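cache lookup: miss for this entity combination. No prior model stored, computing from scratch. Input as submitted by user K.M.:
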Amino acid sequence: METLEQIKASLETSVPGVKLEIIPNESPSGQRSLLVDNAHGVAVAKFLRDDPQLRLDYCSNVTGVDWLDTVLKEKVKAKQLVEGVEKEVEQQIETKRAGYLEAVYHLYSMALKHGPVIIRLRTENRSDKNHLPSLTPVWRGAEFQEREIFDLYGVIFDGHPDLRRILMWDGYVDHPMRKDYVEPDDYDYEPTPHDEVLEKVKQRQPAEAKP
Amino acid sequence: MPMDEGLRSELSKQGIFTTQLSDLYNWGRKNSVWPLQFGLACCAIEMIATTMARYDLARFGAEVFRPSPRQADLMIVAGTVTKKMAPQVVRLYNQMPEPKYVIAMGACAISGGPFKQGYNVLKGIDRFIPVDVHIPGCPPRPEALIHAFMTLQNKIDAQKLTGPGRPRHLDPDAPSEFPVPQFGEHDLVPPNNPALWQAPKLVRTE
């Protein structure tokens, strides 16, 4: 199979105006992925499916990820004059990153027996601009998994044929897999609390003195 | 008026069988409990194994699993009850005719189990319907279900037909149906049936 750089290059020639970025992965798997801009999401997906070299005809998995607002810390070595002598000093650069929601697609080729190629789509933010293009018209198998991401993360997939909640009931308003989800307070009976549950029980019911 | 045990024993040695109406009635009831064919998760697999040849629940008169609640006496809540499923479980229970019993099978059905803090898991079906026998285990072995079944039979056998504590179907004031919870915006409404379940008082010392 082509490397991710080759795929990126061929995408850039055949989908004009596409913005792609290779996301590194520092874990032992080293499985890198391709960040695709939302405007060209469907065109990129169609290319990946139809290109005779790739033929990624099988979307095995669609995952939602919730990224909160964070401060990224990066250590940079810089040369600095200290008491007239030039020395290397480590500096920490902090950059604020606004949160976003993400959908990750794992693509394989059943015809050519290769894969996975991983593409990511990111929303602009976590609140009002939470739209992504649906890839269900390209891979039919993504339908239920996109519905699940809509249900649990609140990502709205434009172009999805049947975007409804799938696990929670209609009329439910929360998105329970979001990291800032507040669950209903039903910690009224916890016989063996520990860790987070213990903290919640302590708030509800202060400890009584030892008999 | 209970009969003298010694006299009964003497009579039975002479080939005369004596009994009471309540004994006969309960004997009939306890040996023909038809469970509802109803499983929710992995515990249902153990429930199926219990009914098959190796463990053979038919020895206890409970081999006829009914696919309709209207013909069933016993609901075995076998598996995780999600909040989305809970109203349907209560509705099925309401459609069963009296006398009816409930066995909550496995850690999930009795308390939420390993999924207790999950956003969509009910913390025990006893919050909405009255449970007669709870079985711990994840999942309980078929022997445990058989033990629960025998416990239920003993419970039926010990019931008196009159007076306080008589079975619900002989008490016109006892409720036979329980309110079905509604789907709310964040949780089930109400989150439990306070007439049926109240949080046991825990004293935390620390």
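stored under new cache key. The longest helix of chain A spans residues 142-153.
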